Amino acid sequence: VLELEYLDQQQRGVKTFQTLANLQGVLVDFLYENGYNYLLAGSSTWRSYVGLNHGDKRETAKQATQNWILSQYNISATQDEADAIAMGVYFSHQLYDKKKITWGEEI
User: Fold this and answer.
1) How far is CA 11 from the centre of its chain?
2) How far apart, in whole angstroms, are the C-alpha atoms of residue 34 and residue 24?
């Protein structure tokens, strides 16, 4: 299973967003066409799931995620590592609970 985060255009320029959106489309198509399971969720979804989505600005949200990882798992992680761990928690629980899973649809 591969986990992918929905793109957030607010954090990128138009050209960068288009490039990343195209890449994500190619990845999703490849995964679907080859029978792989994948999951998609936005950052607000997985942050809310672990109790961190309070409408914070990006840097505040990233710091809150780092603090949550430290308190839950006693891991001192970088911002990107903390985001990846929190995303993994969300996605693994979605797989375990078999709820809210995006398995793909025909293109």
Assistant:
1) 15
2) 15
Which residues, 6 or more positions from 87, have their beta carbon under 8 angstroms from its beta carbon? 3, 5, 41, 46
Please give the Cα distance from 53 to 8 (Å, whole number): 15
Q: Which residues partner with 2 through β-bridges?
A: 38
Write the DSSP assignment of 6-64 as a string of letters. PP-GGGS-HHHHHHHHHHHHHHHHHHHHTT--EEEE-HHHHHHHTT--SS--HHHHHHH
Low-confidence ranges of the chain (pLDDT < 50): 101, 103, 106-107
- Tens digit of pLDDT for each residue in 48-61? 988 887 777 888 88
